Amino acid sequence: MRVGVLGAGSWGTALAHLLASGGGHDVDLWAFEPEVVAGINSEHRNPLYTSDVSLPGSIVASGELKTVVERAQMVLSVVPTQFVRGVLPEVGRHLSPGVPIVVCSKGIERKSLATMERVFADELPGHTREGYCALSGPSFAAEVVRGMPTNVTVASRSVELARRVQSAIATRFFRVYTTDDVTGVELGGALKNVIAIVTGGSDELELGYNTRAAIITRGLAEITRLAVNLGARPETLLGLSGVGDLVLTCTSDLSRNRQVGRLLARGRHLSGIEREMKMVAEGVPTTESAYQLAHGRNIDMPITEQLYQVLYQDKSVAEGMMALQDRALKDEWTPY
Fold first, then answer.
1. Is the pLDDT confidence value at 309 over 70?
2. What CA–CA distance (Å, rounded) separates 308 from 292?
3. Strand pairing class (132-136; 101-103)
4. Which of 69, 181, 220, 314 could form a disulfide with 236 if both were Cys (CB 3.0 to 4.6 A apart)?
5. Which residue among the candidates 106, 192, 278, 315 is catalytic per the annotation?
């Protein structure tokens, strides 16, 4: 089929490569940067992201969103979370009825505190219920683009649609599971980035493996509390889009969010870190959204709260870590 991929960052480029080389699809790749369009079409390389990887000739880049969307039989949206709403009106004008949308962005929108499913429902109300999927799981672009074995989950309210997308994008090296728990898959993928920033900071301070394991475990507990409160099933957070993605992002320096935590622990200010990063670290705005959701719903999320204070109230990483240790003692198990 002809697939439109919206967003030519590292993840969008990796997915376009996967669809073209592994799936045999023709891929139209929408890129914001003119140099990316030129590089892919003339040299079959993305000059800004994964520049060392040769891309199949069946990938055609375009700076025209209309062209990419109107030709697509399936659309993968890899636009950074905070910019998704801005591109959807034009997508809606050119999207054919019945074309599946697979959202691969991981985050929660600022101000509205909306998941991606809700953003799409707001902007494409006639298309979301039966045409919307969310893809998530432990999947670094740098490994996917090199054909390393990867397992992910695709979620849709329509089981039939999830299985159609599963068949379309799965390859021998890219195994795809399905679920109907869209909320759990989206929140697991978004909130793990928050915990990854904290583990990066802890590791930079050399607080040890014990601390890292505790942050991941207690991080999963608070992710699950919020996700279940918002309608997710707890078992989803034990799957690939939950604990799988959480472990990956917290333990590898390929993680942009983990790197943010390391730089914060060195005393760097957030504004300087963000200026220097070529790629978006979704955990930064997601921390603000998760903090606001937790307070509005009276959900206990102490790790998220301490990171919020580090990012937005000038608390140091070391002070945040000690504040977590100094909390009142409690039972480990708490109901959702």
1. yes
2. 10
3. parallel
4. 181
5. 192
Measured in degrees and rounded to the nearest 5, phi and psi for residue 4 equal -100, 125
In this prediction, residue 129 has a pLDDT band, given cuts at 50, 70 and 90, of low
User: Token pair for residue 120?
Assistant: 């799409």
Residue 115 φ/ψ, nearest 5 degrees: -70, 170
Starting at the edge strand found earlier in the chain, the sheet holding 101-103 runs: 59-62, 26-30, 2-6, 74-77, 101-103, 132-136, 150-155, 174-179
Mean pLDDT, residues 201-229 taken together: 98
Backbone phi and psi for residue 87, each to the nearest 5 degrees, phi listed first: -95, -15
Cα–Cα distance measured from residue 153 to residue 291, given in angstroms and rounded to the nearest whole number = 26
Across the range 177-193, mean pLDDT stands at 98
- Pair type for strands 26-30 and 2-6: parallel
Q: Which residues contact 101 (CB under 8 A, 6 or more apart)?
A: 74, 75, 76, 77, 95, 120, 124, 127, 128, 131, 132, 133
- For the chain, percent of residues with pLDDT exceeding 90: 92
Going by pLDDT thresholds of 50, 70 and 90, the confidence category of residue 71 is: very high
DSSP string across 92-142: HHHPPTT--EEE------TTT---HHHHHHHHSTTTHHHHEEEEESS--HH
Contacts of 214 (CB under 8 A, 6+ apart): none
Tokens 């030129």 correspond to what residue?
Answer: 38
Place of tokens 């670094």: 140
For the segment 149-169, the average pLDDT, to the nearest whole number, is 97
CA distance 150 to 176: 9
E strand or H helix that includes residue 146 = none
The rounded distance, in Å, linking the Cα atoms of 336 and 330 is: 15
> Against a cut of 0.70, is the pTM above it?
yes
Please enumerate, as own/partner, the contacts of 120-126 that have beta carbons within 8 Å and a separation of 24 or more.
120/84, 120/88, 122/85, 123/85, 123/88, 123/89, 123/92, 124/88, 124/91, 124/92, 124/95
